[in-house]
Amino acid sequence: MKKTGKRKSYVYKLATLGITAVVVLCMTVTALLIPLRPSVSATEKRELAKFPKLTWSSLWNGSYFAGISTWFSDTVPFRDALINANSKVQHLMGTGRVQAGFNEGMAGDEIPDAPPSKDTKSGADTQPAQTTAAASAAAVSAEATTAGAAEQETVKKSEETGPAPAFEQLSSILVSGNAGFEYYNFVQSTADKYAAAVNRAASVLQGKAQVYAMVIPTSTGITLDPRIQSQISSSDQNKATAYIEGSFDPSVKTVHIFDALTAHKDEYIYFRTDHHWTELGAYYAYVEFCKQKGVTPVELKYCERRDFEGFLGSFYADSGHDPALGNTPDVVETYLPPADADITVTDSNGNTFTGDVIYDANDSIPAYKYSAYIWGDNPFSDIHNKGKKTGESCLLIKESFGNAFAPMLVGEYEHVYVMDYRYCSKTVAQLVDEYHINDVIFANNISMTRADVLVDKLAAKIA
Q1: For residue 162, how many C-alpha atoms fall within 13 Å in the half-sphere facing its CB?
Q2: Which one, of 400, 378, 380, lies nearest residue 444 by Cα?
Q3: How far apart are CA 342 and CA 386, in angstroms?
């Protein structure tokens, strides 16, 4: 009996070892099949490592073999399926994928009152004198503003009655209904650096180009139910925007869009499964820009519209594929002003190509459909309105929020140059001189103004 038991145990261990060896062998063979190795990760929204080119120098210094190792580990077959499976397990365990670097859910700095405007020469507070007519108009405007504020307060109070809607706080975002929202924590030192970078651009470009600046709020500050906002640790974006805009030099033309977006908060101005605004939201910002520039905006009804369905963005990924988000994908609505325009893109490898301003994203994977706007994030692009011969041009300085805004500017300029400060090798001053640019537009979301690494990159690209 003892010999029989030992024999069975031996056979069991041998069989287990054999099965394990076969599984490992199959996985190894699969991993070695180059056609199965992915080139992009939809989940991580990035290109994966490429197989290195063989050169004498890379062979000599060992970087060729290091590159092969990186490629091998970065392009494991079925990479996204494995990551997504892991995300679902984390979601079941109550943990979400974390966006690094922004301290989500942590209390921000206390937001000071907006600083007073300063005269650029004397530094004194500026209080321009008013004529009798101007004073009368100001009084009427103030009365209307007070009435409007009272009406808004009434609406706000009615919205805040009753219990707050249900919401789930994950490690990086919260989900309420079928929409995701990111936390925002004001960081005064970083916000001050951002305003300083914009002011430095205005100083460097004085006499060459007019600087405009808009601070783009995220959906948390505009569309999240105020009853939920009061229960979470997220800074007041309205007050933070006022502080940052109040820190701009008087020579900077500030495009205030917070109120305009708030007025349209019940419309589809932000995606539900992604942190970006829609192009409809960007259109309302464009209208405010036109007011500041003194031009008439193109009406939306004259813009060509194309929709791309099935968009599942960053919130969907960061929530561990929350079913409430996954079951209601977004639609990427795109608009292009009536103009004969194309875009020439310079990608991260220095290659250039020319195509339509709105990329056909019908066949794109769900996570990539936001790239319909100007072909996504690239170091530098030139949108050419071939029907406009004024020679007027602008430089849009942006991160990904600016992608949906750029097409709106086509009707106003012969050339809309787009600089993603995170990747472009040239400075703002160099581009203004090289392309004889008239207007420089800073269009960055408020979340960027709390990230030191991004603000430092922007500051380094001014001059």
Answers
A1: 6
A2: 400
A3: 8
CB 287 within 8 A of CB 303: no
Residue pair 436/393 in contact by the 8 Å Cβ criterion: yes
Cα–Cα distance between 240 and 165 in angstroms, integer? 25
With H, G, I as helix, E, B as strand and everything else as coil, classify residue 222: helix
Contact 398, 405 (CB under 8 A): yes
Give the residue-averaged pLDDT of 254-265. 98
Q: pTM value?
A: 0.73
Confidence of residue 163 (pLDDT cuts 50, 70, 90): confident
Asked whether the predicted pLDDT for residue 110 surpasses 80, the reply is yes
Classify strands 415-420 and 179-182 as parallel, antiparallel or unpaired: unpaired
Burial of residue 157 (CB within 10 Å: 0-12, 13-18, 19+) is: exposed
Instruction: Report helix, strand or coil for 385.
Output: strand
Mean pLDDT score, 218-240: 94
Kindly state the tokens that stand for 95.
Answer: 């943990």
* 258 close to 217: Cβ distance less than 8 angstroms: yes
The helix (run of H) or strand (run of E) holding residue 452 is: helix 452-460
Q: Could you report the per-residue pLDDT of 279-297, keeping only the tens digit for each?
A: 999 999 999 999 999 999 9
Phi, psi of 444 (to 5 degrees): -130, 145
Distances (CA, A) of 305 to 92, 267, 454: 39, 17, 33
Q: Which residue has the tokens 């995701």?
A: 180
**How far is the C-alpha of 99 from the C-alpha of 102, rounded, in Å?**
7
CA distance 436 to 421: 19
Structure token pair of residue 290: 């036109």
Phi then psi for residue 384, to 5 deg, are -110, 115
Q: In Å, how far are 184, 249, 329 from 245, measured between CA atoms?
A: 17, 9, 34
**Is residue 277 a contact partner of residue 217, using CB atoms and an 8 Å limit?**
no
d(CA 140, CA 138): 5
